[in-house]
């Protein structure tokens, strides 16, 4: 009886994310899909487009009366330094194709590649989801993900942290630090000041401040900023997303003083507490490059790494894009950037980083 419906061809289109009804329909589909991430939500694509000035191309597959049967969020990224790329999802650590059936996934992948050619993007990066097709290269060795369930209370959470790291957390709890959580302009400013200094010290350019503002606006109560202060001076801060009872601490960092004060350790423990109060049961520590300090830091907290699978397709004759700061060819630039005056780094950084994606 369902055979006629299943035999109908898939209709593909680029969504109008400015249309409230279209966004609501897509959002409902994403919320119900078991493999979805917050980076599949239309809110993410809208925030990225507004915050970084890049174009969103959100692919939607529909089949007759069944409505939406698949989606693929895409961001068209332009950079004079790193070239052009179509990314799924732009500025996200997740993304890729969501589909009800393999034939729908293949149709979305083909449409994505055709779109990239029309947009003169020689490369497409897909962060997660099913493999788009045999033409796509698989990368499952460069990035690790870290996630685990939250404990039932603070005492149990401390016990879930390995002994050495637990001692660092206890020191952070004992230090004279204050914690606040909010979403207003003052919170964004405090977070941005801390985050900008943190990434400058690591030798990477900071994202535009508008990106953080737009993400907070688009996700509303499902996003906030947690700030740790010492004598009213912000020393650690993190912007987090809350989705499907999971907290995603996404953009976090600390000033030079944070390490001495164990402010970052205090920050993440306080976020675990706050997430439980919001009804979360899982903590997603995000991705880190294999063999790096951030990966080791997350393992010290008791998080077991899992390999993240990404895909890439590059036009014939074009070189794959590699904008990672760990690329050896950027070693000198990273070293120089980490020594820039903060005011200079904050002025130039957003112009560079908006094309990284």
Automatic annotation (TrEMBL):
Listed InterPro entries: Acyl_CoA_acyltransferase (IPR016181), BioF2-like_GNAT_dom (IPR038740), PEP-CTERM_FemAB-rel (IPR017469), PG_Glycine_Bridge_Synth (IPR050644)
Species for this entry: Sphingomonas suaedae
Superkingdom: Bacteria
TM ranges: none
Boundaries of every BioF2-like acetyltransferase domain copy: 166-298
Protein name: FemAB family PEP-CTERM system-associated protein
């Amino acid at each position: 009886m369902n055979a006629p419906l299943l035999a109908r061809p898939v209709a593909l289109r680029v969504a109008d994310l400015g249309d409230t009804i279209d966004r609501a329909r897509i959002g409902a589909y994403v919320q119900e899909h078991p493999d979805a991430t917050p980076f599949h939500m239309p809110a993410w694509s809208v925030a990225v487009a507004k915050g970084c000035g890049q174009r969103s191309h959100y692919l939607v597959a529909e089949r007759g009366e069944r409505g939406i049967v698949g989606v693929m969020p895409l961001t068209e990224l332009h950079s004079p330094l790193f070239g052009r790329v179509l990314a799924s999802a732009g500025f996200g650590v997740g993304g890729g194709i969501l589909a009800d059936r393999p034939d729908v996934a293949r149709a979305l992948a083909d449409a994505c590649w055709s779109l990239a050619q029309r947009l003169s993007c020689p490369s497409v990066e897909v962060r997660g989801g099913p493999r788009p097709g045999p033409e796509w290269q698989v990368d499952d060795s460069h990035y690790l993900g870290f996630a685990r369930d939250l404990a039932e209370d603070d005492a149990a959470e401390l016990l879930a942290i390995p002994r050495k790291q637990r001692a660092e957390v206890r020191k952070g709890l004992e230090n004279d630090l204050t914690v606040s959580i909010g979403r207003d302009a003052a919170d964004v400013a405090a977070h941005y000041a801390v985050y900008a200094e943190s990434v400058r010290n690591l030798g990477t350019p900071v994202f535009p401040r508008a990106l953080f503002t737009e993400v907070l606006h688009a996700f509303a109560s499902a996003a906030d900023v947690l700030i740790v202060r010492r004598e009213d001076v912000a020393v650690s801060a993190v912007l987090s997303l809350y989705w499907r009872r999971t907290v995603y601490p996404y953009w976090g960092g600390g000033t030079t003083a944070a390490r001495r004060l164990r402010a970052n350790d205090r920050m993440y423990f306080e976020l675990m507490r706050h997430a439980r109060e919001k009804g979360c049961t899982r903590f997603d520590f995000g991705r880190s490059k294999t063999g790096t300090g951030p990966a080791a830091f997350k393992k010290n907290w008791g998080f077991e790494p899992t390999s993240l699978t990404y895909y890439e397709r590059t036009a014939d004759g074009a070189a794959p894009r590699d904008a990672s700061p760990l690329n050896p060819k950027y070693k000198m630039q990273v070293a120089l950037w980490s020594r820039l005056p903060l005011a200079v780094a904050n002025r130039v950084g957003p112009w560079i980083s908006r094309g990284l994606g």
